[in-house]
Design brief:
2 copies of one chain form a homodimer. Chain A has a two-stranded antiparallel sheet with strand order 1-2. Chain A starts with 10 loop residues before the first helix and ends in a 9-residue tail after the last helix. Helix content of chain A is 69%, strand content 3%. The first copy, chain A, is mainly alpha-helical. The first copy, chain A, contains 10 helices and 2 strands, in the order αααββααααααα. At the A-B interface, helix 1, helix 3, helix 4, helix 5 and helix 8 of A face helix 1, helix 3, helix 4, helix 5 and helix 8 of B. Chain A binds a DNA duplex through helix 3.
DNA sequence: TCCTGTTAACATGTATTACAAGTTAACTCG
DNA sequence: CGAGTTAACTTGTAATACATGTTAACAGGA
């Protein structure tokens, strides 16, 4: 006979659920005021610290907005904002390994290149073009070239128009940029990078998502290959 | 003269930031134990209710996992998933938001498929194959088919071997899965999905990253196309 | 009449103390 | 050696008191 685990809920859990439910069921508008703490304590028959912990949790979820001296109000949140928050947490609890970050970067850059090719305006293309022109300067110090390189990529992400990807890429850039400043690519790698940048720009200008994807994939694969252990066999 | 608003931070705010920073800066592993409440109260020189409110907030974000009698731990994938579940059930998702989630999902799934094709063991392939066999059952209720579908995808992400992407996908799946339960794909979409699942499996079995990427790209593109506003022209 | 200052009422923020309830390790006994 | 008990540890909850911010009402002076 297989019995299921008994689920224990703390009083704080119950209060969180109750308040969240009331907000949802009564379709309370963002900004509408909830009863004060002392009244909620009375109504829910719980202690004030329990209520405050529940409200603290709801505040983190964006479901309520606690304003000292004024009261507690229904939060003005969106699922997108919450998703961003949770994605940040997911990043924080994940191991900080350069390869992991680079793989995620690759995933996002490729998808964003497709979307940029679909979305780009003439002005966007002009700006991307100007950035690549700056990168053509052979005298450019590496750190500066890297900075402009990342601005090119950031612009593509922006054009793609997905807030989640933008937020994640800021975290990734911060981590990856720190690491990449410490390594100098070869002349050959530089030239391949430039060539692929140009191919990406052309695909975006032509509004060709498949070409953009292909060029970005190659670009990212070159970046990943530099990071992975050198394996010359595929024996598995 | 224009002065800026003075930002007031409560003690709870400060404690939240401090603990989050410690977790991040010390690269604490998911599941690692934090000092007990009484010790944290001592170290941070704040009252216990303040500390508990801060921990309650961090728990809502999935950054910590509070276990009665045992201690407080850095959040892990499971505790994060529980947070996501609670949160996403409290807010409604707009079609535009759903599209954002699906785009990020697409980015990661495609990268993961490449990596799965590089990494998969015979056992992995066997398991993937068994999942697809289950999906062949035409009598399978939609909700159940969807569940197995997501297990197939989760397995691919696992094989890819990037914990960061796994954690991010746990967040995304919660947001995406709920919506998909509510919409029933057409027979044609189902068949295309099945066909592409098989192509993905074949590519993984053959250790062919390019084929895996292509099949997954098609699969994800079909998902995205269902979500996008119906535009029949590319006039831009 | 209008504006400034004061006060009281209301509301959240923080601290202290005490007890409840769950977990786990160590010890004792059969 | 296994089961039961106990103590130590840990989080959960309650009660009480005070601090601090907000706002409305009122009074006084120009």
């Amino acid at each position: 006979m297989q019995l299921e685990a008994i689920e224990r809920r703390t009083t704080v859990d119950l209060v969180v659920d109750r308040i969240a439910r009331v907000i949802k069921d009564q379709k309370l508008a963002a900004g509408s005021r909830l009863p004060g703490e002392h009244e909620l304590v009375e109504q829910l028959q719980v202690s004030r610290p329990v209520l405050r912990e529940a409200l603290a949790r709801l505040q983190s979820l964006g479901l309520v907005d606690i304003q000292r001296g004024r009261g507690t109000f229904v939060g003005d949140t969106t699922s997108l904002a919450n998703c961003v928050r949770l994605l940040q947490s997911a990043v924080t609890i994940s191991p900080q390994e350069l390869l992991s970050y680079a793989e995620l970067r690759s995933a996002i850059e490729v998808q964003a290149a497709r979307q940029a090719a679909e979305n780009a305006t003439a002005k966007d293309i002009e700006l991307l073009s100007a950035l690549l022109k700056q990168l053509d300067d052979e005298e450019l110090p590496y750190a500066e070239a890297l900075e402009i390189d990342f601005r090119f990529h950031r612009k593509l992400i922006e054009i793609a128009g997905n807030v989640l990807m933008q937020n994640l890429m800021e975290v990734i850039y911060e981590f990856v940029l720190t690491q990449m400043v410490r390594t100098t690519p070869t002349q050959r790698e530089n030239q391949l990078g430039r060539k692929l940048h140009k191919a990406i720009l052309k695909a975006v200008r032509d509004h060709d998502p498949d070409a953009a994807e292909l060029a970005m994939r190659k670009h990212m694969q070159a970046v990943l290959d530099r990071l992975r252990p050198q394996e010359f066999t595929n024996a598995k």
